[in-house]
Write a structure and sequence with these properties.
This protein has 452 residues and is α+β, with helices and mostly antiparallel strands. The chain contains 14 helices and 17 strands. A hairpin with a 2-residue loop joins strand 1 and strand 2. The protein is elongated and about 95 Å long.
Length: 452
């Protein structure tokens, strides 16, 4: 239900703003408009206000603004010279560009709000790299917090993959600024080649291919909280217990305990627990829960005892002043724009598979997930969605705003309008391309949804 609600809110806001950009600019230039529609197809709801028919279409895959055309609509004689098709080239280009531009402005405004409100998120604490992965070359056997990559500050874990994908194509080396739990800093510089080989190869497993996994800083396996009716409660674990052994294996910290439990759902285990001055043996059965990818994960229902400064060490809050946020927001949006264009380039050159595409199902899932995480995360999702819509609409493809701008550029070079036959072929190509991309995106959504 949250996915549906989030998707509808996102659609109404982001698409409405995009079409409003076209609509408002046209009206300001005096161009008559016949219809303003959010959604495609037959109208679920419509209302005529003045000379414009406002409507909601039944198919939630975009929207459109229909400009008055004397060949098809009843246009007042005094407005015929104001219709879109007879306007000068600069005016038509401005109306077309206004849609994506307003989406980008909305993204900037929403991201500014997010930065001012502040999002608490985990810092980039990474587990020791496993096997022959690129991160293992950096970390060795130690747990580190990544504080910067090539001098670009990393405050939160979610910034890490973004900066890696930004830095990898344009750098010869990756210089990691690292910090231990005890506060000791070090730098490690490695060639970028191995990282570049794996970049974009499998978006669903990108971090694991690099050997990157979030880590819990070293904490003793002391229980600070036991969930009611959980596997731990049924086994007799109480607050203050310290797990010393699991099935005879030494437990060096809570991370050891957590990692083993997650990997062994539904298994019976024997815990050696220190309670005050006593050592107790407890029997437990690991509970199981199903993850979004359909895999089972084990859990006990316990939380670790955290040090007094745990929140400061584990989490970063991105709250900024309004002025600072207004300047930082474009930087974050530019990072995402570059990543979007890189992803598109890799799709077009065949370097990445179609699994990177997301259609309405994927967007709905992301909307629902962000809504579950709270208002600030949902606003952040809306900012990135609005940015994506603006950027993608500038692609030079038929029927997209970028495709119209390409035609206007050709018209400017020729000094006259393109023949109607060329325009008709261009539109037909656009219909086929958009339909194909939509079907591929929906197919990618279904493939992810059903674990294909």
């Amino acid at each position: 239900m949250l996915s549906i609600i989030g998707f509808l809110i996102a659609l109404l806001l982001v698409v409405s703003v995009h079409e409003w950009g076209h609509f408002y600019t046209a009206r300001r230039l005096g161009m008559p408009v016949v219809r303003f529609s959010i959604g495609m197809g037959a109208a679920l709801w419509s209302k005529r206000i003045g000379d414009v028919d406002y409507r909601l279409g039944w198919l939630p895959l975009g929207g459109y603004v229909m400009f008055a055309d004397p060949k098809e609509h009843d246009v007042a004689p005094a407005l015929v010279h104001k219709t879109f098709n007879v306007q000068p080239l600069w005016a038509r280009a401005l109306v077309v560009f206004a849609g994506p531009w307003v989406n980008i402005l909305l993204a900037w405004f929403l991201m500014t709000l997010v930065l001012v409100a502040g999002v608490q998120a985990p810092k980039a604490w990474l587990a020791a790299g496993k096997g022959n992965t690129p991160w293992a070359e950096v970390s060795g056997h130690d747990v580190f917090q990544v504080t910067a990559i090539n001098d670009v500050v990393i405050e939160q874990f979610e910034q890490l993959p973004v900066q890696l994908l930004r830095q990898i194509p344009q750098s010869d080396v990756l210089r990691f600024s690292l910090q231990t739990w005890d506060g000791h800093a070090r730098e490690v510089t490695v060639p970028v080649a191995r990282w570049r080989e794996l970049a974009w190869s499998n978006p669903k497993e990108q971090l694991s291919l690099w050997g990157i996994a979030p880590a819990m800083p070293p904490l003793p396996a002391i229980i600070a909280d036991v969930e009611a009716n959980s596997a731990a409660a049924k086994a007799g674990l109480i607050v203050g217990d310290e797990v010393k052994q699991l099935n005879g294996m030494q437990v060096d910290g809570f991370a050891d305990l957590s990692e083993w439990i997650k990997a062994h759902p539904n298994e019976s285990i024997i815990l050696l627990v220190q309670r005050h001055e006593q050592l107790l043996t407890l029997n437990a059965t690991v509970a199981a829960r199903t993850l979004s990818d359909g895999k089972l994960q084990g859990f006990l229902g316990v939380r670790p005892l955290l040090p007094a400064d745990w929140q400061e060490k584990l989490f970063a809050v991105s709250g900024l002043s309004v002025w600072d946020a207004m300047w930082v927001a474009p930087i974050k949006l530019w990072d995402m724009t570059v990543l979007t264009w890189q992803a598109i380039g890799r799709l077009l050159t065949g370097q990445s598979g179609m699994e990177q595409l997301s259609g309405p199902i994927g967007i709905a899932q992301a909307a629902g997930s962000s809504l579950e995480m709270g208002a600030i995360r949902f606003i952040q999702f809306l900012a990135l969605l609005s940015l994506s819509l603006g950027v993608l609409n500038l692609l030079p493809l038929p029927l997209l705003d970028g495709g119209h701008l390409v035609l206007y550029a050709l018209e400017w070079v020729r000094g006259r309008a393109l023949p109607e036959s060329v325009m008709l072929v261009w539109q037909k190509i656009g219909i086929v391309l958009i339909a194909a991309l939509t079907l591929l995106a929906i197919g990618s959504d279904l493939n992810r949804l059903f674990g294909g």
